[in-house]
């Protein structure tokens, strides 16, 4: 194991960081070439935890490939959502990528850093609460 770590992380053990080896890569299913991977994929980002920690990010050391492939996170929370039935406007949420699944949209990857840090953003569930934090209004018509 120390040979593998030395090869991947260098000879100075004090500089070794779990997140340098164990990473999240948000790989889009449509990214199958260099340009599409650059446009669609995000990462790698340092991953905390492992398969048995609260901030789960499992990996598969039996996976074929180099150490970075073996220790890349293959599981993790897809969404964190906390709400109170007593105060629906105190609801908070976070998703691993962003508010939009549309590549090129400014919200495509706007939650990644918040998700990595364990932060959450407000998601008020009443009309009044949502209007208080709204930045834009979209009116759908016929």
What distinguishing features does this structure have?
two-stranded antiparallel ribbon; 3-stranded antiparallel beta sheet; single chain; alpha+beta; 25% helix
Task: Give a written overview of the molecule.
- The protein is of the alpha+beta class.
- Helix content is 25%, strand content 12%.
- The protein has helices at 2-9, 18-21, 34-40, 67-70, 112-116, 127-133, and strands spanning 23-26, 42-46, 80-82, 92-94, 121-122.
- The strands form two sheets. It has a three-stranded antiparallel sheet, with no helix packed on it. The protein has a two-stranded antiparallel ribbon with strand order 1-2.
- It is globular, with a radius of gyration of 19 Å.
Structural class by helix and strand composition: alpha+beta
Number of helices in the DSSP assignment:
6
Kindly state the number of beta strands.
5
What general form does the structure show?
globular
């Amino acid at each position: 194991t120390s040979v593998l770590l030395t090869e991947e992380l260098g000879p100075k053990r004090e500089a070794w960081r779990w997140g340098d080896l164990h990473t999240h890569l948000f790989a889009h299913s449509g990214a199958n070439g260099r340009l599409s991977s650059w446009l669609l994929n995000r990462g790698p980002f340092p991953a905390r935890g492992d398969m048995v920690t609260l901030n789960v990010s499992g990996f598969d050391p039996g996976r074929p490939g180099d150490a970075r492939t073996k220790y890349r996170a293959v599981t993790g929370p897809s969404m964190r959502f906390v709400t109170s039935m007593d105060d629906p406007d105190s609801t908070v949420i976070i998703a691993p990528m962003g508010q939009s699944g549309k590549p090129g949209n400014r919200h495509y990857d706007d939650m990644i850093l918040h998700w990595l840090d364990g932060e959450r953003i407000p998601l008020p569930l009443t009309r009044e609460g949502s209007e208080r934090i709204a930045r834009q209004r979209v009116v759908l018509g016929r």
